[in-house]
């Protein structure tokens, strides 16, 4: 397996409950290394652009409202097969279907407020990383 990068967001429901460190610890314990991280307040424009792929879906406006409802922590993670590793530790989108010991099973409040986002492919990871980070901010 190759060392790759992925993108992660610790969502507003988790930052509101002061779980940034706990979520990051779970990522690190899954052998993912945080090589860039910043806490931001996502603007409506940023959220709409980031989630543009979902623009025609009925949940789009609620998703944008949620992601702008409080601070988020955007991160670049690095490790062997990082996308797959991150998705495994995040767990299923629906926390009721997520495996025990995953971020979403442990911390999510609901299917919408599920505490974490992670890239679904290496290609999307590169796009999502570039959306929030300049190369000089990634110091792995």
TrEMBL record:
GO BP annotations listed: CTP biosynthetic process; GTP biosynthetic process; UTP biosynthetic process
Protein's cellular compartments: Cytoplasm
GO MF term set: ATP binding; metal ion binding; nucleoside diphosphate kinase activity
Highest rank taxon of the organism: Bacteria
Residue numbers binding ATP: 11, 59, 87, 93, 104, 114
Cofactor(s) of this protein: Mg(2+)
Active site residues of this protein: 117
Record-linked Pfam families: NDK
Catalytic activity: a ribonucleoside 5'-diphosphate + ATP = a ribonucleoside 5'-triphosphate + ADP; a 2'-deoxyribonucleoside 5'-diphosphate + ATP = a 2'-deoxyribonucleoside 5'-triphosphate + ADP
Annotated EC: 2.7.4.6
CDD domains to which the protein is assigned, alphabetical: NDPk_I
The keyword Metal-binding appears for this protein: yes
UniProt keyword Phosphoprotein present: yes
NCBIfam families reported in the protein's UniProt record: PRK00668.1
Description of how the protein assembles with itself and partners: Homotetramer.
Assigned protein family: Belongs to the NDK family.
Function: Major role in the synthesis of nucleoside triphosphates other than ATP. The ATP gamma phosphate is transferred to the NDP beta phosphate via a ping-pong mechanism, using a phosphorylated active-site intermediate.
Protein name, UniProt field: Nucleoside diphosphate kinase
Organism: Parasphingopyxis lamellibrachiae
